[in-house]
Amino acid sequence: EKGLQLPVLGGSVEEDYIRIARCFEATRQRCCRLEQDGCRAREQLARVEAERAALEVKLKHARNQVEVEMKKRHRAEAELEKQERKLQLVLELLMREPWGNEALSREQCSVLSALAGRRLGAALAPVRRSSAVDESCQSLLSHSDISYDRTEDDV
C-alpha cells in the first residue's frame, strides 16, 4: 500500500478539517488491516510451531527406535557369529572322526565337506540375507549415514 499522504490544505477551514478527518480515517483503516494481518500471522506461526514441536517429538522417537533396533541387530549378528563358530567346530569334529564318515551317507559327507572346507558364514550368507531385512536398502538405512546429534533433542 502507499504511505501516509498528508492532505493539501488551502481551502476553507471546514474543507481542511474534512480532508484531515478522511486522512485519519484512512490511516485508522490501514492500522486495522495491519493488526488483522498481524493476528493471522501470529496464529499461523503458533500452528507451525506446534507442528514443528510434534515433528521433533516424532523424530526423537524415531531416532530412539532406530538405536534400539540397531542394538538388537548387533546382538543378533554377534549371536549368529557365535553359533556359526560352534557349528564350524562341530562340522570339523565330524569330518575328523573316523566313525563320522562311516555313520553318514555319501551325500551327507559331501555336504559336510563342502561346509567344512569353506567359511561357514559365507555358506549361510544367502539364507541369512533372505530371512533378515532386505539388505539392498542397507545404503539407505546404514547406521553410519544416520545422524545421532542429540543437541537438537534438548531444544
From TrEMBL:
One of its GO terms (cellular component) is spindle midzone. Residues 45-97 form a coiled coil. It comes from Rhadina sibilatrix. GO terms for molecular function: GTPase activator activity. One of its GO terms (biological process) is mitotic cytokinesis. Keywords: Coiled coil. This is RGAP1 protein.
